[in-house]
Amino acid sequence: MHRTLNILLWLTIFAVVALNNSVSAKSVQGNGSTGSRSCLSDRALSNAVLSLSKDYDEAQNAGRQLRNFSKRSERCRQQVISAVMKAMDKPNLDITKDHESNLIWREGAVLLGDLKARQALDLLISHITMSDGEWSITMVHQPALDGIIRMGKLAIPKLRTKLTDPDSHVRQAAVYCLAWIGGPSVRRAFQRALPHEADPCVKRFIEVSLDTIDTKSGELKPDRSRWLSAFLCGDVAQTSP
Description:
The chain is mostly helical. It has a single domain (41-239), classed as Alpha Horseshoe (Leucine-rich Repeat Variant). It has 13 helices and no strands. The longest helix is centred in the N-terminal third of the chain and has 29 residues, at 2-30. It is globular and about 50 Å long. The model is unreliable at 5-36 and 237-241 (pLDDT under 50).
């Protein structure tokens, strides 16, 4: 009987110690101080974000590193998103003169889009017409666009509100993003906006977008030459007196 009590006592002590160790390990891992799944230190995170503005290879490596760390936990994901947004959100930003910010926006917008960072939508959409002064068919010189498009359906509600923006350039850029995202809700938004659109270029772009979005797949059709021409207001300019 005495031996049985001793065994039970030792088993109880072992169970309590094991439970305490498990709780301590989870606590340490959760606060990010140690453990293989911990988030980046503030210094490492700052260096990685800064590297987004370096040469192409270094920027790509930094982007991969930030993506990998964001997968460790929701806390790590939010840490990465906050740091990237902070680096991008500068007052009176002019990427035609601020080369470092231009590069951070190119990489950062894509990263935020890939991470589906809903809280970054306002920042991206507020810079939807921002350009570094150059142009390419890839629209890389308007870095906010790619980030918004990568958000996918998350971006549709906020983009819809921009279809009535006083600035026709904002409306044109919103149509561009919405058309790339596609889907039935985008078609409905275009159909509602079309009768109220006064700018001939934007109106034509909405019309062509409706023709170019495939009704079955919801995506833009492979042949986008006419769509791109409408985005650039090419066919409207050709028919103008």
